[in-house]
Amino acid sequence: MVISALGGLLGGVVGALFVVGVTWVLKAGMDFVSAQVTWVLVVTPLVGLALTTLVLQGIGRSEESSAPRRAHAWRTFPPHAVRADITGEVVDTAGVEERFSWRLVPIRAIAIVATVGFGGAMGTEAPAAYLGVGAGACLGDRGRRWRALLRPAAVGGGAAGVAALMGIALVGTFYMLEIGRRHRAPFSAERVIAAVIGGLVGWGINMALGLDLIRLIVPEEPPSDLLQAVKTALFIGLLSGVITALAGAAIYQAKKWRAAPHIRLALGGLAAALTAVTLVIVAAPSAAVGPGGGSILWAENTGPLPPALLAVAVLRALATISAAAAGGCGGIFVPFLAIGDIGGRVFAPGLDVGKDLAGAAGAAGGIAGGYRLPLTAVAMVLGLGGPRVATLTCLAAVAVAALAGWAAGRTVDRVSKLPYLWKRRGRVSAAPERHHGAAAR
Q1: Taking Cα atoms as reference points, which of 244, 80, 281 lies closest to residue 88?
Q2: Which residues are within 8 A (CB) of 418 and not within 5 positions of it... i.e. 6 or more apart?
Q3: For residue 258, which of 88, 414, 111, 83 has the smallest C-alpha distance?
Q4: Where in the chain is the domain with CATH 1.10.3080.10?
Q5: What whole-number distance in Å separates Cα of residue 41 and Cα of residue 18?
Q6: DSSP letter string over 408-429?
């Protein structure tokens, strides 16, 4: 436990500072792109996706095609690795962080800057977790004396990176613990201690430096009565959970798409360009760039009608799916925040609730339903604060969104398996006929 605490502290400090430095670069790039004319807003993310493909697929090599010598470890990927899937790297090494390929962090960091910093529709939370874990793993991989610190330093670094980005300690803690459960990493005392300390370190660095790396909506106006609160939680949680769950399933398939890199770039880039142009027409140029912050500002400042809000929520989901299909290297946590926020605002006029409450409930529901991180969503709601009734409403929306996202995900899985089941059924039904024909001959 002492080693876990020390590893979480050291990994948290190193990981958080590294993440803050890279995030500053990403934020500066997104701000610069957002200030350009419309055609630059559309073209620059495509240039970033092309650079990402060049870095990961052109400079990067596979162990199948080049000998994994130590001199080439910084650009040699494992066989069949999805090189842009940084979240998958964190998940696959959860509980066995000594297997984390921290030497690949520099080349992937360049790809992250090319995708996210150039205004691609992907988020900064997965880079924060990936870079934090990589910094912690690098710190612990200093020989036998440091080996015991590797796992807690990696967990603490990831938690600190996310906490420094979000400005909420428990969000970083629960993010690392929940995402580790996808690889069945246990909620052991060692991992919990490292994640808690890492989250506190990241939050402390955020407070000490006065960082404003990501904008979260705080619900200020609570529901007027119990019935209004129930309706808000039910409708907003259901919509945000279903939309983000369907988007999450599509993004997962897009990341695992085994097409050639140039085909992925061409088709995914074309889809991203068409989506961006549509967003410019339907909403505003600012809504077409970045992970979704500009679309939230558009929704806050212009007061659009519910059909326009729903259209923008769907288009933002398509933008992230397209970026992932093109080989973009980034996260989906922040895009889901934006999709859920805008989707929640669809019901604000009909439910007669404040737009801030609708946006906050939808954003939390997007994390619970689309990213399947309900505890992280709960931590975010509690960390944001606001009136007690508004907080309880957002927590109820998280529960509804989690159930709706689970149901939508199960439905998508069953539908996707239907062609295989029908094909298998056809082979089974044809087997007796073949057997009968052979016996007759």
Answers
A1: 80
A2: none
A3: 83
A4: 2-209, 226-417
A5: 28
A6: HHHHHHHHHHHHHHHHHHHHHH
Separation CA 102–CA 134 (nearest Å): 5
Cα distances (Å, whole numbers) of residue 261 to 54, 67, 85, 264: 9, 22, 14, 5
Measure the CA–CA gap between 128 and 283, rounded to whole angstroms.
29
Q: In this structure, what token pair is assigned to residue 56?
A: 């990961």
First to last CA, the chain: 74
Q: Which residue has the tokens 């792109």?
A: 33
pLDDT tens, residue by residue, 321-358: 999 999 999 999 999 999 999 999 999 988 888 899 99
Q: Is residue 272 within 8 Å of residue 323, measured between CB atoms?
A: yes
For residue 162, what pLDDT is reported? 96
Tens digits of residue pLDDT in 220-262: 889 989 999 999 999 999 999 999 999 999 998 898 888 999 9
Q: Quick one: DSSP state of residue 285?
A: G
User: Which letter does DSSP use for residue 347 in this model?
Assistant: T
Q: Which fold has domain 2-209?
A: Clc chloride channel (1.10.3080)
Percentage above 70 pLDDT, the chain: 93
Question: Got the DSSP string for 35-87?
Answer: TS-HHHHHHHHHHHHHHHHIIIIII-EETTTS---GGGGGGEEPTT--TT-HH
Mean pLDDT in residue range 389-398: 95
Measured distance CA(384)–CA(364) in Å, rounded? 11
Rg over alpha carbons for the chain, rounded to the nearest Å, is 22
Tokens of 223: 């529901």
Token pair recorded at residue 204: 């402390």
Residue type, 356: D
- Joined together, the tokens standing for residue 290 give 């970045």
Residues 93, 182: Cα–Cα separation, whole Å: 10
Instruction: Report residue 43 as tokens.
Output: 């073209």
CATH class of 226-417: mainly alpha
